[in-house]
Design brief:
single chain; alpha/beta; Rossmann fold; four-stranded parallel beta sheet; two-stranded antiparallel sheet; 5 helices; 29% helix
Length: 171
């Protein structure tokens, strides 16, 4: 069955409500702030706790190529590398004090996908996995990912990216 494109693009937020203090098991599109507004205080996930929900494994979906997180334009792109951009590339180039201009990037990266030129975290979440899959299907050697803020659904995006990067370490 195909329900079409998912509005959020990430797996759901998972809560454990079996005790008096709700426990967040997996970050998703519902932010911690939204949860706290509804439930009051909640307990956040810890990296060393036992697996109690899907999506809690250290390794999660990972592309077949290496994944480099928090890419800065101060770093040299690798051979056959693609870029997942977020926000204004021109601003990022200026902030990194790189001598590159945006038009140079198409010669340095095999492909660039900006998951949200306007730096909208919901848009980025909805495009994250499809972008990873698209770049992986091109057979790139690695994917560099620009920094994504940890605000709101950005925590879930970064959680999935960290798990995906962990899954590429053994390649």
């Amino acid at each position: 069955m195909d329900g079409g494109n998912c509005e959020c693009g990430l797996e759901s937020t998972v809560l454990d409500l079996s005790s008096s203090l709700p426990k967040l098991l997996r970050y998703g599109s519902v932010s911690v702030i939204e949860l706290k507004n509804i439930l009051g205080e909640i307990s956040l996930p810890e990296h060393d706790e036992s697996i109690r929900s899907p999506g809690m494994l250290l390794k999660h979906y990972a592309p077949k190529c290496k994944l480099r997180l928090n890419y800065s334009f101060n770093e040299q792109p690798r051979e056959n590398e693609a870029l997942i951009a977020f926000g204004s590339i021109s601003e990022s180039l200026t902030q990194s004090q790189s001598k590159l201009i945006e038009s140079d990037l198409k010669f340095l990266f095999r492909k660039i996908i900006n998951i949200s030129p306007s730096a909208d975290l919901d848009e980025a979440a909805s495009k994250l996995f499809s972008s990873l899959h698209e770049l992986e299907s091109l057979g790139v050697g690695s994917i560099a990912v620009m920094p994504i803020p940890y605000d709101s659904v950005g925590r879930a995006i970064n959680d999935r990216l960290l798990r995906a990067a962990e899954g590429t370490k053994d390649l």
